Amino acid sequence: MRAAQALSTVTHLSHLDELEAEAIHILREVAAERERPVLLFSGGKDSIVLLRLAEKAFRPGRFPFPVMHVDTGHNFPEVVEYRDRRAREIGERLIVASVQESIDRGRVVEQTGPRASRNQLQTTTLLDAITEHQFDAAIGGARRDEERARAKERIFSFRDDFGQWNPRAQRPELWNLYNARIRKGEQIRVFPISNWTELDVWQYIAQEGIELPSIYFAHQREVFRRDGMLYAASEVVERYSDEEPFEATVRFRTVGDMSCTGGVLSTAATIESVVAEIAATRISERGETRADDRASEAAMEDRKRVGYF
Amino acid sequence: MSATSDPVTGAGPVASIAAGGLLRLVTCGSVDDGKSTLIGRLLYDTKQVLADQLQHIEETSERRGDGYVNLALLTDGLRAEREQGITIDVAYRSFVTPRRRFLLADAPGHVQYTRNMVTGASTADLAIVLVDARHGVVEQTRRHSAIASILGIPHVVVAVNKMDLVDFSQERFHEIARDLDALAGQLGIRDLRVIPIVALHGDNVVDASERMPWYGGPILLDYLDSVELDDDRAAGPRRFPVQWVIRPMAEEHHDYRGYAGQIAGGVWAPGDEVIVLPSGLRTTVAAIDTLDGPLPQAHYPQSVTLRLADNIDVARGDLLADPAAPPVVARELEATLCWMSERPVQPGARLAIKHTSRWARAILDEIVAVVDMDSLDERPSPGQLVLNDIARVRLRLSEPLLVDPYAESRITGAFILTDEATNDTVAAGMVISATA
Q1: Residue A100, domain member (yes or no)
Q2: What confidence tens digit (pLDDT) does each residue in A13-35 have?
Q3: Are A192 and A222 found together in one domain?
Q4: Which helix (H) or strand (E) covers residue B173, if one does?
Q5: Could you tell me if residue A6 is inside a domain?
Q6: How far apart are CA A232 and CA A250, in angstroms?
């Protein structure tokens, strides 16, 4: 009779708790089914949530995979500081794959001029690091609400031995029965928070009381305006002569390279006020702050096809 | 140029967490019955479409000469889809109301894409089937409803679209509703709701239509907001597939041994008796652990870590269950199969099978019958299964799987088959019955 009694007290999980349970299940599946997974960690809010979910999945044990950052060398210093501190706190192994090293070794050629970005170069560094460490699964924080090509990508996304995504040849993904089987040289990309939205991520960060890099909150910064976006003024981004830097109170909605990540004018200095702003916003995260996705109608699809996250 | 209903105004989704939980739904319809428009409408009217996305589809509509803001463009994902004007693959989209968070699987409706609908339907709590009011119940409607039924989706909503093209005729609507009732009876769909709409203009989607005063039922979004998620999965007998064994072997947790997984059925509490399958060993639950501390009780779909009272051998792929109502330790399965590969399969084929957290090998012993998707009757097997066939088959297993009939559990009754050479997922399976 205990079961019958208990059943009457069962409450439905909140959508955040259900998404969390799904993501934990996904992390345990990839850990169990692949020999050498790696968790990609950028210091951005989505991968910070991934780290918390990995703690939920595997503690009190250790993570069954290392954590890797593809460092363009053009990251915000606050984010790099956060990355190193967080890796120490959780006591897991951090690998830094460096785009600068790829440039120095002649694997990629750096763009020059005010429009130069290392964003595209990350793909080579990522694929080289995957080969070097023989990773067979890379866990990332991409979400289906970010961009339309991502809305069609599987949670366990098969990549051929060139790291390429072929949207026309995706494996059917049924129930929660993920197929991580691959041949040598092939990989799986795994996206545990596929079904989360930007608002879910922020609500989860608030619910869990997770610390974020300071650039996510409103702060004074020297910025300049380009294409209607506000970029951080820094020595890694060359400015046109008419791009005068000025002081503004901004926060960043996404964290990528300084060369392609725009800030938004905001006075939201706490998680609660950021959540309120996100809930009321009328512009998408990538549309507002990511130059890399504005390049063409199929920008993300093209980059994923050649092996981008 | 303006959209066909109110412009984007208001505050958008609220910042507080919706109390109604997460509802997973799948939409099914063929190319011309307005599915993309309906989804665009739901996204637009619940204020999920942001200014830059709206600007993008306004520009595209203008360029294509649509003459109105084509909300269907919101759901085009891939370049090939935009170029060919078709939907190729399942897309997953989120929207939220003050009451509930929704995750929508948008499945293409072409005949050749049955496998996509099966994929989208596998996780759905609710299906929206689109019907064109001019054409009524057609072959596609039967096919989509049949898939919803076979995949065990508890709630089916039929949206009778384009009511404006039949002059908002109550008579026409009731005629279609009668046909649908008959279909629901034939398919054993328990909860079928029929709603007359005009997706293009928003009638009865988010706002009640003044043009159909004779309709007294709920409008679509109100229904989605309020439908009761009476989840069988929490109510069934206790099931816990072990995904991962946590053994830190560090000094502070020297003797810790936890079994991590997602609860697949029932309500669990410390003290519960447990049978470990397939070994048959028995013990009790000592604790339900999470990062946030132990729980007095847990249920589907929570991901937790169970500790057991006795130190017995338990590994990934084992299933913990209620000893009073255990699953079948099965060596042979009778199952419904949806074949999803371009390559046909014949009896005798060897495949890999994944069921919960357990892999085994399977031999396709017999194709008993194939479902005729037009009449929904079974016909004798033609000797092989081709892409999009739905069939009743017998499988022999290399080692036991711990199964329940799919009608009793959409988790412990479901499996996939993969090709051992290519590793592709080639079939979705649902257990009808199992023998030891």
Answers
A1: yes
A2: 899 999 999 999 999 999 999 99
A3: no
A4: helix B170-187
A5: no
A6: 10
| H/E segment holding residue A18 | helix A15-33
**Quick check: is A4 in a domain?**
no
Predicted local confidence at residue A8, as pLDDT: 45
Residue type, A24: I
A140 with A252, same domain? no
Whether A174 sits inside 8 A of B122 (CB atoms) is yes
B35 and B171 share a domain? yes
Structural domain span for residue B363: 328-435
Mark yes or no for CB contact A152/B91 under 8 Å: yes
Provide the 3-class DSSP secondary structure of residue B126.
Answer: strand
Q: What is the pLDDT of residues A31-89, one digit of tens each?
A: 999 999 999 999 999 999 999 999 999 999 999 999 999 988 888 889 999 999 999 99
Q: What is the pTM of this model?
A: 0.92
**Cα distance between residue B368 and residue B352, in whole Å:** 20
Closest residue in chain A to residue B297, using alpha carbons only: A6
Q: How many CA atoms lie within 13 A of B9 on its CB side?
A: 4
Residue A222: give the domain boundaries: 213-293
Q: Which of A12, A59, A280 is closest, CB to CB, to B21?
A: A12
Evaluate whether A260 touches A267 at the Cβ level (below 8 Å): no
B17 to chain A, closest Cα gap in Å: 8
Domain stop point among B290, B321, B352? B321
Alpha-helical segments (H) within B123-169: 139-150
Q: Per the structure, how many domains does chain B have? A: 3
CATH number, domain of B186, equals 3.40.50.300
CATH number, domain with residue A115: 3.40.50.620
Same-domain pairing of A19 and A53? yes
- Report how far residue A180's alpha carbon sits from residue A172's, in angstroms, rounded to the nearest whole number: 12
B388 phi/psi in degrees, rounded to 5: 75, 0
Token couple for A148: 């339309």
Residue B21 and residue A28: Cβ atoms within 8 Å?
no
How many Å separate Cα A106 from the centre of its chain? Answer: 26
